[in-house]
Design a protein that fits this description.
RmlC_Cupin_sf; metal-binding; five-stranded antiparallel beta sheet; single chain; binds manganese (II) ion; alpha+beta; Jelly Rolls; binds glyoxylic acid
């Protein structure tokens, strides 16, 4: 505790510093998911039990393979509307991540390809460029737009938890990034799909009013997403 004696000889207690420190100590850390209560808990993703995460596979059935995953090793097929593919290495694909509070994605982008505006409600994201040239941007809750063009392998970016963001390939060649999250299952709200391809769909009145356009515009956008 920061207790000091000042020149006049009386004990000067730095109450503010101590108090803040003591108040912060019992608070959970900045990590998104709860801390594990055991070394590991390979998720039994097929279990009928519903818990926060997944129940653990019996330890006797755990093998080295449970700690490896090669689902991000292959290039994704970017031959689609957005010209991009996100391969998710979350707990659903890699059950070994269960309770450990981390996950990764692989994002392949064709020239001009876009990983469309989306947000992760349960995680902060970082990413590293492996090759290519990308524009990465995010929006704050105050509608401030931050962006940067990454041009070299190893360059990194950061997307604060829950904020809407995107990556676009602005180079002539393919681009590849790996992203990492402080959640085993960050969740992904893809803005255009969320609003225009939900089931059941958001009422047209809501969308026409929200975007200040005619219903024909909404119909056209919905048709692009097969809704
Ligand atoms: C990129 O933004 C990703 O979510 O992987
Ligand atoms: Mn993301």
């Amino acid at each position: 505790m920061a207790i000091m004696k000042n020149r006049s000889g009386c004990w000067c207690v730095h109450f503010t510093v101590c108090l803040i420190g003591m108040l912060l100590l019992p608070l959970p850390s900045q990590s998104s998911d709860p801390d594990p209560l055991q070394d590991f808990c390979i998720g039994d993703t097929k279990s009928a039990l519903s818990v926060n995460g997944f129940p653990c596979k019996p330890a006797a059935n755990v093998s080295s393979d449970d700690f490896f995953f090669d689902g991000l090793s292959k290039e994704g097929n970017t031959n689609n509307t957005f010209g991009s593919l996100v391969n998710q290495g979350n707990v659903l694909a890699f059950p070994g991540l269960n309770t450990l509070g981390i996950s990764m994605n692989r994002v392949d982008l064709a020239p001009g390809g876009l990983n469309p505006p989306h947000s992760h409600p349960r995680a902060t994201e970082t990413g590293v460029l492996i090759y290519g040239k990308i524009l990465v941007g995010f929006l704050t809750t105050g509608n401030v737009f931050y962006s940067k063009i990454l041009t070299g392998p190893g360059q990194m970016f950061l997307i604060p938890k829950g904020l809407v963001h995107f990556q676009m390939n602005v180079g002539e060649e393919k681009a590849l990034i790996f992203t990492a999250f402080n959640s085993q299952l960050p969740g992904s709200v893809i803005v255009p799909r969320n609003l225009f391809a939900s089931k059941p769909s958001v009422p047209d009145d809501v969308l026409t009013k929200a975007f200040q356009v005619e219903k024909t515009v909404i119909d056209e956008i919905k048709s692009k997403f097969g809704a």
